[in-house]
Design a protein that fits this description.
443 residues, alpha+beta, 2 domains, 8-stranded antiparallel beta sheet, 8-stranded mixed beta sheet, 8 helices, 27 strands, 38% strand
Length: 443
């Protein structure tokens, strides 16, 4: 069998399946946005959406288990190149150690724990290691970790996911989920814990064991390139630095480097009949920094909307549904516009009409964005397409007849920038219409 990386599939499966207990402590911080929703009789929720941790954690090296890991590494890996990471697999504050051997092509992840003053291997029968670099995920302090792989032979492709929890300091395999698809057809066979099941049974199991309550920011992928590298244990300072920080802090600081903000996306709903029940969900490549009203990240917003655009949820009426996030994408400026700051209002009035926004939507867009733009010498503007929509996917039930998504990326410039003019085609608003606008200031 040929084995290959399983990063993307493992993440998507992880959002659906687990037998792990999920009542650990997740790290959260106050949101930073000062934007207030344009709602009626509404107040900003007091509970903010979680964000990745910042590098404010105390030195991990000060804890007794990490001092023991230091001695363990010095004694056993004095002449070998390895990568290490400190992780929290179960619900306590005691770190576990993830270790990879650099001599391996795809380094396997070996786990160690700290029990009764000793470093112990977390190897169990059938699992001497826990996935290759990049296909191992854990939920921070939530007693759940998992890995998967994609393999193939001459007849079929096989996707397998192993889901673990910790039981008295040792990993316990909770579930194995597997799909096998034949090359010559779309025929797929489904397995739960080695028992063949129907697709409906497989889907029902996923629904029953969904991670409906977990904080998505807790999902961390252990990637070899993000771990601390050690070339033998001769350098005490190198070892000290390697064991000084929680891996999750390092992981999110690196991930954030390749993320861009999505600011003030506002979703308007205009059904054809009053009191229409609508579910709006988002599937983003990143993490939320603001949601008003709050929603469950698996189930989205379930609201009632009227033809005039009023949206009702839990006794409160909103003009629109509001979200902000950091997205793992790169906004493009292959085409767009370069506009003087003093001409920005006129440009937005005209261009947003071309984009399909009505008077109210334009006013609220301009009210938010113009103060950030009008005092610049020039604004280089590009209305994003797949760089935005492919990383912030909307799922709406019932499906709109017309969907208009306007996302403006811009940056300030001290001088005129020659850029290919962007062509915008005006959509026709008919039937149940969904409109979304948002943007990002690139600095």
């Amino acid at each position: 069998m040929k084995k290959s990386k399983y990063l993307t599939c493992a993440m998507s499966l992880a959002l659906l399946i687990t037998g792990c207990s999920l009542y650990g402590n997740n790290i959260s911080e106050e949101g930073t946005s000062s934007v207030t929703v344009q709602g009626k009789d509404s107040e900003k929720p007091s509970e903010e959406t979680a964000q990745p941790p910042k590098e404010t954690a105390p030195k991990a090296i000060d804890s007794p288990e990490v001092k023991a890991y230091k001695d363990f590494l010095t004694e056993n890996y004095n002449d070998e190149e390895i990568s290490v990471a400190l992780v929290h697999l179960d619900e306590d504050d005691v770190y576990e150690l993830a270790l990879m051997h650099e001599k391996e092509t795809d380094p396997n992840i070996y786990l160690y724990g700290y029990q009764e003053g000793e470093v112990v291997s977390l190897e169990i029968e059938g699992f001497p290691f826990y996935g290759d670099s990049g296909d191992f995920f854990y939920l921070d302090k939530a007693n759940c970790f998992f890995y998967g792989y994609f393999s193939s032979n001459d007849e079929e492709t096989v996707t397998t996911e192993f889901v673990f929890s910790m039981n008295e300091g040792k990993p316990a395999l909770d579930h194995t989920l597997c799909t096998k698809t034949k090359y010559d057809s779309d025929e797929t066979t489904y397995y739960i814990d080695d028992k063949e099941v129907t697709k409906q049974e497989f889907d029902d199991f996923n629904d029953e064991h969904s991670l409906s309550e977990f904080d998505p920011v807790s999902v961390t992928c252990v990637i070899d390139e993000y771990c601390a590298k050690l070339s033998g244990m001769g350098d005490a300072d190198e070892l000290e630095e390697a064991l000084s920080r929680d891996y999750r802090v390092v992981y999110f600081s690196r991930e954030t480097e390749i993320m861009e903000p999505a600011l003030k996306p506002a979703i308007y709903l205009y059904p054809e009949q009053d009191n229409t029940s609508i579910n709006v969900n988002l599937d983003i490549d990143g993490y939320y920094t603001e949601l008003i009203p709050e929603f469950n990240t698996n189930n989205g917003w379930s609201v009632t909307a009227n033809r005039n655009g009023d949206i009702r949820l839990d006794g409160t009426t909103y003009d629109y549904l509001f979200w902000e996030a950091m997205l793992k994408t790169e906004y493009t400026f292959d085409e767009g516009f370069c506009i003087k700051g003093e001409d920005t209002r006129e440009f937005l009035e005209s261009t947003l009409t071309t984009c399909g926004l009505n008077t109210k939507e334009k006013e609220q867009f301009i009210e938010y964005w113009l103060p950030k733009m009008e005092n610049n010498a020039y604004n280089v503007i590009s209305f994003q397409k797949v760089a935005y929509t492919d990383h912030a996917r909307l799922k709406v039930n019932p499906a709109p007849d017309t969907t208009i998504r306007v996302f403006m990326a811009f940056y300030a410039s001290d001088e005129y920038v020659d850029i290919k003019k962007q062509t915008i085609i005006t959509p026709t608003r008919s039937g149940f219409t969904l409109v979304e606008w948002g943007g990002s200031e690139i600095k």
